[in-house]
């Protein structure tokens, strides 16, 4: 069996079907030259893999975890319960309630276990990647400079006029 991948930012998701959403988290990371790895880890379907991932990530060089899941989305909270690393969560749009179930499952954490929940879907995933880069930039001044330049390019792309 393949072993779990670990990188500075490790992105996990509850199912292969979450990839269309979670791929958006890789965009800012690639643009900002932050190394990342991706894997499918499910609290429900692969509980042993979840325990191994949450216990090992900080020992294997991961500094920030991004976790995306839909529906009964226990993955981010369970990782946060076991890992000392910051966990940024992405509620994936679900078939039943278009992501409201995912959002509420993820955001309502009990006091004492923190998860940084983003918006539902692709924009939330993109922002999760951006937030991970911003966290890492606290200890990486070159990355901080790339972030500042990235922000300036974003501003330049917003037209002043509607005509
Ligand atoms: N919420 C979770 C967890 C978990 O939280 O551990 N594991 C899988 N899932 C979610 O089930 C949805 C449907 O999965 P399938 O498309 O594989 O049936 C996915 O959005 C996944 O994140």
UniProtKB/TrEMBL annotation:
<feature type="binding site">
    <location>
        <position position="18"/>
    </location>
    <ligand>
        <name>substrate</name>
    </ligand>
</feature>
<feature type="binding site">
    <location>
        <position position="45"/>
    </location>
    <ligand>
        <name>substrate</name>
    </ligand>
</feature>
<dbReference type="GO" id="GO:0004638">
    <property type="term" value="F:phosphoribosylaminoimidazole carboxylase activity"/>
</dbReference>
<feature type="domain" description="PurE">
    <location>
        <begin position="7"/>
        <end position="158"/>
    </location>
</feature>
<keyword id="KW-0658">Purine biosynthesis</keyword>
<dbReference type="GO" id="GO:0034023">
    <property type="term" value="F:5-(carboxyamino)imidazole ribonucleotide mutase activity"/>
</dbReference>
<keyword id="KW-0413">Isomerase</keyword>
<dbReference type="InterPro" id="IPR033747">
    <property type="entry name" value="PurE_ClassI"/>
</dbReference>
<protein>
    <recommendedName>
        <fullName>N5-carboxyaminoimidazole ribonucleotide mutase</fullName>
        <ecNumber>5.4.99.18</ecNumber>
    </recommendedName>
</protein>
<keyword id="KW-0456">Lyase</keyword>
<dbReference type="Pfam" id="PF00731">
    <property type="entry name" value="AIRC"/>
</dbReference>
<dbReference type="InterPro" id="IPR024694">
    <property type="entry name" value="PurE_prokaryotes"/>
</dbReference>
<comment type="function">
    <text>Catalyzes the conversion of N5-carboxyaminoimidazole ribonucleotide (N5-CAIR) to 4-carboxy-5-aminoimidazole ribonucleotide (CAIR).</text>
</comment>
<comment type="pathway">
    <text>Purine metabolism; IMP biosynthesis via de novo pathway; 5-amino-1-(5-phospho-D-ribosyl)imidazole-4-carboxylate from 5-amino-1-(5-phospho-D-ribosyl)imidazole (N5-CAIR route): step 2/2.</text>
</comment>
<comment type="similarity">
    <text>Belongs to the AIR carboxylase family. Class I subfamily.</text>
</comment>
<feature type="binding site">
    <location>
        <position position="15"/>
    </location>
    <ligand>
        <name>substrate</name>
    </ligand>
</feature>
<dbReference type="InterPro" id="IPR000031">
    <property type="entry name" value="PurE_dom"/>
</dbReference>
């Amino acid at each position: 069996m393949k072993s779990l991948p670990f990188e500075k930012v490790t992105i996990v998701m509850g199912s292969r079907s979450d990839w269309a959403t979670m791929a958006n988290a890789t965009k800012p990371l690639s643009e900002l030259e932050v190394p990342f790895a991706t894997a499918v880890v499910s609290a429900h379907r692969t509980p042993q893999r979840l325990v191994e991932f949450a216990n090992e990530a900080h020992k294997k060089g991961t500094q920030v975890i991004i976790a995306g899941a839909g529906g009964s989305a226990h993955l981010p909270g369970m990782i946060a319960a076991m890992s000392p690393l910051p966990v940024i969560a992405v509620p994936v749009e679900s078939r039943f309630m278009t992501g409201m179930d995912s959002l509420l499952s993820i955001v309502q954490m009990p006091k004492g276990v923190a998860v940084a929940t983003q918006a539902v879907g692709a924009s939330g995933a993109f922002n999760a990647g951006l937030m991970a880069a911003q966290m890492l930039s606290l200890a990486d001044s070159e990355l901080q400079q790339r972030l500042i330049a990235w922000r300036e390019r974003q501003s330049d792309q917003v037209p002043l006029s509607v005509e």
